[in-house]
């Protein structure tokens, strides 16, 4: 029974059963419900998503562990699908990172990725990123591995080294992270399919391709990525970007036209919304539980 598995074990099962495993960004509990219902096997809480959607901030290391935990709990409270969480640089030194991992597990996350950027981080697809030394990154991974209580909790090392130091250096860092116990490698902001090939043939660990829009990496198809050796494909903010554009059109239309008739087609209907929420099942229960109350009145 899959519910008897820990979140980490569910993530590993999904990875074993899907090649590649597509992981879609869900910025809140409701979008997680939709992703689960349409059949996704893994979902993602983006650091950029928490900053942008929940706090109206840019993705520049301004959100805290507790900000992210709050969003995780909302999502893991609503769905069973294993959740990969972006923990940025881990929010501090080894002891902080250790706390982070324990809190992630407690909140129901299945997996995390921790990156080798400096604390004053940027989006991985922006210029002028700075990274910590390989040794410091290895210490981050060791702190993660040492802190987990469920051995299936999945710890992914993200390297942002490609932009400044090139492919070989990035692979070398990834190798050091695997030796330190990382379960997978997030090859950030590479620009060619061959780069994934190089990671996957050099390393004995699953590789994640981050297919984020308007970034450094082309929007490769999952079959091309599978052929190039990617085991996971991430779509961190795809639904969020689409939701934002739809919302903007609605706000502008209401202002310009005085009603929303022209944009109703962009909207999920009341019944569609209720269906994802199992609204009717709740309502039936309500009627059954409160039947006596009704007749009392
Ligand atoms: C994956 C990522 O870390 C995120 O926070 O979602 C971002 C995505 C993006 O900004 O498009 C990143 O790649 O740095
Ligand atoms: Mg991020």
UniProtKB/TrEMBL annotation:
Signal peptide: none annotated. GO terms for molecular function: magnesium ion binding; methylisocitrate lyase activity. Keywords: Lyase, Magnesium, Metal-binding. It catalyses: (2S,3R)-3-hydroxybutane-1,2,3-tricarboxylate = pyruvate + succinate. Its EC number is 4.1.3.30. Its cofactor is Mg(2+). Substrate binds at residues 46-48, 123-124, 158, 188, 210-212, 241, 270. Pathway: Organic acid metabolism; propanoate degradation. It is an enzyme of class 4 (lyase). Mg(2+) binds at residues 86, 88. The keyword Metal-binding applies. Catalyzes the thermodynamically favored C-C bond cleavage of (2R,3S)-2-methylisocitrate to yield pyruvate and succinate. Homotetramer; dimer of dimers. PANTHER family: CARBOXYVINYL-CARBOXYPHOSPHONATE PHOSPHORYLMUTASE, CHLOROPLASTIC, PHOSPHOENOLPYRUVATE CARBOXYLASE. Belongs to the isocitrate lyase/PEP mutase superfamily. Methylisocitrate lyase family. NCBIfam families: PRK11320.1, prpB. This is 2-methylisocitrate lyase. It comes from Hydrocarboniclastica marina.
């Amino acid at each position: 029974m899959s519910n008897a598995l820990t979140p980490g074990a569910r993530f590993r099962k999904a990875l074993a059963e899907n090649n590649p495993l597509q992981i879609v960004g869900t910025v809140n509990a409701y979008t997680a419900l939709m992703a689960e219902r349409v059949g996704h096997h893994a979902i993602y809480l983006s650091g950029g998503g928490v900053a942008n959607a929940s706090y109206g901030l840019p993705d520049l290391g301004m959100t805290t562990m507790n900000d992210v935990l709050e969003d995780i709990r909302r999502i893991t409270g609503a769905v069973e699908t294993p959740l990969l969480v972006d923990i940025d640089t881990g929010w501090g030194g080894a002891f902080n990172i250790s706390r982070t991992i324990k809190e992630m597990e407690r909140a129901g996350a299945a997996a995390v990725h921790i990156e080798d950027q400096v604390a004053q981080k940027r989006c991985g697809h922006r210029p002028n990123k700075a990274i910590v030394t390989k040794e410091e990154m290895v210490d981050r991974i060791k702190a993660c591995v040492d802190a987990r209580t469920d051995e299936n909790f999945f710890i992914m090392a993200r390297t942002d080294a490609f932009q400044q130091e090139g492919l070989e250096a990035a692979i070398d860092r990834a190798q050091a992270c695997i030796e330190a116990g990382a379960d997978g490698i997030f090859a950030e902001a590479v620009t060619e399919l061959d780069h994934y090939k190089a990671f996957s043939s050099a390393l004995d660990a699953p590789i994640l391709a981050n297919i984020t829009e308007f970034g450094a990496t082309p929007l490769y198809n999952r079959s091309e990525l599978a052929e190039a050796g990617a085991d996971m494909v991430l779509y961190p903010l795809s639904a969020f970007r689409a939701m934002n554009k739809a919302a903007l059109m609605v706000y502008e239309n209401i202002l310009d036209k005085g009603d929303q008739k022209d944009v109703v087609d962009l909207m999920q209907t009341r019944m569609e919304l209720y269906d994802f929420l199992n609204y009717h099942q709740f309502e039936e229960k309500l009627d059954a539980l409160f039947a006596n109350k009704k007749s009392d009145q």
